[in-house]
Amino acid sequence: MDRLAAMQTFIRVVETGSFSAAARSMSIGQPAISKSIAQLEAHLGVRLLIRSTRGLMPTEAGQNFYERAKRTIEEADEADLAARGAGAGLAGRLRVIAAATFAKLHIIPRLPSFMAAHPKLAIDLLLDDRVIDLVEEGADIALRMGTALRNSSATVRKIGRRPRHVIASPAYLQRAGIPACPAELSRHTAVTYIQNGIGDTWTFRRGGSESMVTIAGRLRVSAAEGLRAAVLGGMGFAISSEWMFAPEMKSGAARAVLTDWTLPPMNVWAVFPAGRMASAKARAFAAFMEMELKDTIPAWNNTYEIGASAADPASIHIADGPTRWKGQM
Q1: Using one digit for the tens of pLDDT, what is the confidence trace for 152-211?
Q2: d(CA 140, CA 127)
Q3: Given 159, 203, 252, 312, which is the most exposed site by the fewest CB atoms within 10 A?
Q4: What is the number of domains present in the chain?
Q5: Domain around 64
Q6: Residue 51 and residue 268: Cα distance in Å, rounded?
């Protein structure tokens, strides 16, 4: 039995959920998949898979073996890559987790150039606004947004940062008026994003001054696309990052107000699974996205202000370097 080949087969069965799907993805017959798994279970002396209503699922021993086998295959791939030289490019499958709206606006449009540079690499892009466990999903990397990452012992790297603003559609501002100071937001209608983990109270800063405001509205949404639709439909304002409304701020369909006041910025983090070294594929993707996001500093000035100018784009910066994150930043 070729142990590495058996590990690769087992990994595909776990990730696809069936012998038939694994066989299709590997372009081999289903009997060969079944035989490989049977030989592997006989070699290890434990049952690795059980059948459930969701398909084939790993047992506890199977899950432990999956995590270590995936690490082994990744390290073998990296050894091959190192021996052949960097010019050989990346190969295999990269599993990436990201929020749906961020992926739609900022990741998917950039994937063609990354995949063209690595023609032997396949990508699984798992889209969800919630925080998903990388190990449980068999993911190599997650791109997550937030001021801080909470309750995580994973290794993270900050790859981008953009300001937050009070953002609304021109139709809403024409109907409700333009707030002259943060305190006036309490008389406006807010659309709030449940997943931000921050709450409804925000601190605005300008020079040495601070203004704490609690926003309120009748609509709360759990997905970023819902927030975008509500704001662009004129239902109210949102406190959001430029990441979420980049196309509309460029076109004028969304505008920022109170830009002479600052809010906590929105960071983008590359998150790698805890307990193991990030794969070469994951590191390369994080570096690629970091370079790409540096080019997204806006060239627009779609703001509505009373005696104020737009924030200086030059003040936006990208921080480098990996961080071992444990706790709140």
Answers
A1: 556 788 898 888 999 999 999 999 999 999 999 999 999 998 875 567 889 999 988 999
A2: 14
A3: 312
A4: 2
A5: 1-88
A6: 38
